[in-house]
Write a structure and sequence with these properties.
The protein is mainly β. It is built from three helices and nine strands.
C-alpha cells in the first residue's frame, strides 16, 4: 500500500497526441494462483486514484520575488528538489526557472538558519557564484549572463556542506537534515543599456 509521486518529464510528452502511461507488474498472477480467491483473472495492483498535476517552471523575465514562508503552493511557484518543509533547504536543494534574458541577473536571497556560520555555496548552472556565511541575512549575488543557458531551464543550487538535523545540532527534536530557511528569492534583470 502506498501513494507514490512520479515525474513525467516534459520532453516525453507528444504534443497533440494521445499520451500513454503504462504500468507493468511482471510477477502478476490471478488471485486463484496466489491462493487468495477463486478468480482466474490475472491482477497486478489495485489503483485507488491517479492525480495529474501540471507543473510549470516560472519564467523570470522581469523583477520577481518568490516567497517561501506561509506559501502552501510553493511547488507551483518554483520547482524545487530536496526541500524540507517550511522553506528549509536540505544539504543541497535545486531551484529551477526559465528566462529569455541575455543580461546579468541579480539574485537576492533572504534567509536564516540555526547555524552560526552556514558557509552555504550558491551555484548557478553548475558554477559557484557566491557564499552565504551569516546566520541571518539578505545577500545579493550576480548570476552572470554568460552562465545562462538560452532556451533551457536554469538551475540555482544552494548547498550547505555541514548541514545536520536540528536534533544533531541540539536545537530541537526533528531528525530531518536542514540547511537554510528561505524567506524569499528575488530575481532582478540587469538590462544592458
Amino acid at each position: 500500500h502506498a501513494a507514490v509521486t512520479l515525474t513525467l518529464p516534459g520532453e516525453l510528452i507528444r504534443p497533440g497526441e494521445v499520451q500513454t502511461l503504462s504500468i507493468e507488474v511482471p510477477d502478476a498472477v490471478s488471485p486463484k494462483e496466489y491462493g487468495y480467491g477463486e478468480s482466474e483473472t490475472v491482477m497486478g495492483i489495485c489503483l485507488a486514484s491517479m492525480t495529474f498535476e501540471f507543473r510549470t517552471v516560472p519564467v523570470i523575465n522581469e523583477d520577481r520575488t518568490i516567497f517561501f514562508q506561509d506559501n502552501s503552493s510553493i511547488d507551483t511557484e518554483i520547482l524545487t528538489k530536496n526541500m524540507a518543509p517550511y522553506g528549509w533547504t536540505s544539504y543541497a536543494s535545486d531551484f529551477l526557472f526559465r528566462t529569455d534574458t541575455q543580461d546579468d541577473i541579480l539574485l537576492t536571497i533572504d534567509y536564516g538558519t540555526y547555524y552560526d556560520a552556514p558557509n552555504a555555496v550558491v551555484s548557478f548552472n553548475g558554477q559557484e557564484v557566491g557564499m552565504l556565511t551569516e546566520s541571518h541575512a539578505a545577500v545579493t549575488l550576480p548570476l552572470p549572463a554568460e552562465l545562462i543557458r538560452p532556451g533551457d531551464v536554469q538551475t540555482l543550487t544552494i548547498t550547505v556542506p555541514d548541514a545536520v538535523s536540528p536534533k544533531e545540532y541540539g536545537y530541537g527534536e526533528s531528525e530531518m537534515v536542514m540547511g537554510l530557511c528561505l524567506s524569499s528569492l528575488q530575481f532582478d534583470i540587469q538590462e544592458i543599456k
